[in-house]
Write a structure and sequence with these properties.
Two copies of one chain form a homodimer.
Chain A: E1 2-8, H1 10-13, H2 20-31, E2 35-42, H3 46-59, E3 62-66, H4 77-84, E4 89-91, H5 93-106, H6 112-115, E5 119-121, E6 124-127, E7 136-140, E8 146-150, H7 154-172, E9 176-184, H8 189-201, E10 207-213, E11 216-225, H9 228-246, E12 250-252, H10 259-269, E13 274-278, H11 284-289, E14 301-305, H12 308-315, H13 319-324, H14 330-344, E15 348-354, E16 369-376, E17 379-386, H15 391-412
Parallel strand pairs in A: 1-2, 1-3, 3-8, 13-14, 13-15
Antiparallel strand pairs in A: 4-5, 6-7, 7-8, 9-11, 9-12, 10-11, 15-16, 16-17
């Protein structure tokens, strides 16, 4: 069973708003095991909207349209969808009752165009709107296709979809879908793919697909079956195989868990505290750690030591080191990590120093050169990275790499 | 001239990521005076992608495709776009040189599938990627249509579009379009809109359109004319009017200038240094300041004082204050700002303390409550904010608000 999402609204095409409805609907439909092959955004233009609806009816089983159900002249979604399904509009008594009630309770003036919101196609299920005036509807097309119309504002669309549309879709679809994600934080997308090329080539059910994220690669394993239990059973051997291949390069198998959450959890489990000394990242490492509610269990303080003086003053980095090998060096990263742990009396110290660019390059130090030191109870590891990208990307990836180094250091302890 | 945006990626159809590229491209195309009538998202499926590309070639002058240029097997955008334009692929020497250089400098293993990234259609302009490995390209189709392929990651797509594609599009379009942006950092979108309702209602040439950004509102004034000079003349009175209405609520009128850049520049002009003491933001304020190359002129060090102990130890916040009014209070924010300035011997001190949520609420302190103190040469101002949104959004907006407070404090000095 395939669905197609059609978002109606000139404001999306002008870039005035980001289309979060499409992302929400896509994610929910995937969870319901309904494949979405196309998402289209079209403006408040009757000819182009009609063209898109006709095309959708030809190639998909379910159309989900959002937006254009309001009372104004350019809200035409319902009229066009009804016409495309060969249906006339009729008044829905309950919709009319609710509309009148709304206007009498708010004492807003009810105009002639408000009344058109109570008109619905002849053969449809009306979705009454608990959070606004425009009712949604599921139009039953004669070939058995379903055309679902939803109001545009997310505060109306989300509860209507979740409470009223999902139960309808669940009944339409045979079987269930289950998917699991495997998140890898220390390999590039193409290296990951090379490792699983054989699995991708022979995949059918379950499938496995890599997604590149900033500093990470996610692998999604998805199976289709008659029951949830069967689907989960199908996913299992593939996940086991991926675990065997990637080992502790996998930082989580949970959909909602981020690298910083894994880090905070690992530290909290060991009752460890962490302190960072950040130069080129300027606080981004600690800032990301604080994304996690409860970071206060593992973090008391960190140091943003941008100048050489600050590195000496708070972390005890040696002046000689700075004068000879310089601030961007293995030695400085080590002294920063150890100095941060000592000054904060923390179990784990992190030292980050690098050239984020674009300026500051020398003969042997190019932008993107980063040294990260990680010290756990006096045992220090240091790594050199030559990262690609602009200043922002270098700094963001640096934060990910530092988190991975801490994660692995804790694993290996 | 009409353009159509085609985003390629199963991860968008699965709702794994929100399609911010479409919003970015739409906004930029609108600014260039190019009408976007359709946006389509399609998965990594060759038949469906080809169908969408063919349809786009029939109905639009310019196709902009994002995503699917990577090295993996399901990255097929280039192959399909070339076929739809009737072109074969050939190796681009410069792309190959860059690819090899990248892999030798990063010491990552270069696999066979990486090499396919250097293959480009016969008749195209190659857009070399300064922030990743996949080059973009403008395929010149025989009927005079242009098919523009861009990498999916926004950190690669945005600079490539801005620096390389926009100049090409400007030449394609008859007449010229000039637009100017006015960035406001201390008002919400609806307040800004209310202030300019009359201007929006009677607009024709130039137009003015508000865009809500995180913690900011941008107003774009756009004029259409035969020559650049005329277009600039048309924009002028509207910009003057907006300046009159918003005054120093405008932090810049430059497209590429960010709030943190304005801040670093204002500090550098006065030869001031700044130091922050960050609690709930955990380093994000300073991290954002360090976005600006040359931040070292104004920043030596900052403090991430997450625990009460750290606030006392590094900033001299009084134990009595923490025990009576608590860490999230006006008094603590003031002492943090003053303490940071003193400890770092800086001209400007910033203190940020708040409840980012979701936990930690009390009877009179709800998540989203933030106090920001700003101290310039011993003169301290403090403000209370009750921000909306999740933990992340509260912290990001807090950083913006703190930057605005420093900016205004420097203006008023």
């Amino acid at each position: 069973m395939t669905a197609e999402i059609i978002c109606v609204g000139t404001e999306i095409l002008l870039g005035n708003i980001v289309n979060t409805n499409a992302a929400y609907l896509s994610e929910r439909l995937a969870a319901l095991g309904i494949s979405v092959f196309f998402e289209t955004t079209v403006g408040d233009n009757p000819e182009r909207l009609e063209q898109v609806v006709h095309q959708g009816l030809e190639r998909s089983d379910i159309l989900i349209l959002s937006g254009g159900l309001g009372p104004t002249k350019d809200d035409l979604t319902k009229e066009i969808a009804a016409r495309a399904c060969g249906q006339k509009l009729k008044e829905d008594k309950e919709a009319m009752r609710r509309l009148k009630e709304y206007f009498s309770s708010t004492r807003l003036p009810m105009t002639e165009n408000n009344l058109k919101q109570a008109m619905v196609p002849e053969n449809c299920t009306v979705l009454y709107n608990e959070n606004g005036t425009a009712p949604g509807m599921v139009i039953h097309e004669e070939r058995g296709k379903e055309v679902i119309l939803l109001p545009g504002p997310p505060s109306e669309l989300i509860p209507m979809f979740h409470h009223q549309v999902e139960p309808i879709l669940q009944k339409l679809r045979p079987g269930v879908l289950f998917s699991k994600v495997i998140k890898i934080d220390c390999m590039g997308e193409s290296s990951v793919e090379t490792e699983i090329l054989d699995l991708i080539e022979k995949q059918s059910n379950p499938t496995v697909a890599p997604y590149a994220k900033l500093g990470e690669v996610h692998l999604r394993v998805t199976a289709n079956a008659d029951t949830m239990e069967e689907a989960k059973e199908l996913v299992k051997p593939m996940v086991m195989e991926l675990r065997r291949r990637f080992g502790n390069k996998i930082y989580t198998e949970e959909e909602d868990i981020t690298l910083e959450e894994v880090l905070v959890e690992s530290l909290a489990e060991k009752k460890y505290t962490i302190a960072a000394a950040e130069s080129c990242t300027g606080g981004m490492f600690t800032g990301r750690l604080v994304n996690v509610p409860g970071a206060s269990d593992v973090l008391n303080e960190s140091f943003i030591t941008y100048s050489n003086e600050a590195k000496m003053k708070y972390l005890g980095v040696k002046e000689e080191t700075l004068n000879t090998v310089g601030a961007v060096s293995e030695e400085t990263a080590v002294q920063m990590a150890e100095g941060a742990a000592k000054a904060a009396d923390a179990d784990v110290g992190v030292g980050i120093t690098g050239l984020a660019g674009p300026g500051g390059a020398t003969e042997d130090k190019k932008p993107g050169l980063v040294y990260i030191g990680v010290c756990v109870h006096g045992k220090t590891k240091v790594k050199k990275y030559q990262l690609k990208g602009d200043r922002q990307k270098v700094r963001q990836v640096t934060v990910s790499r530092a988190m991975t180094m801490v994660r692995l250091a804790l694993c290996e302890e």
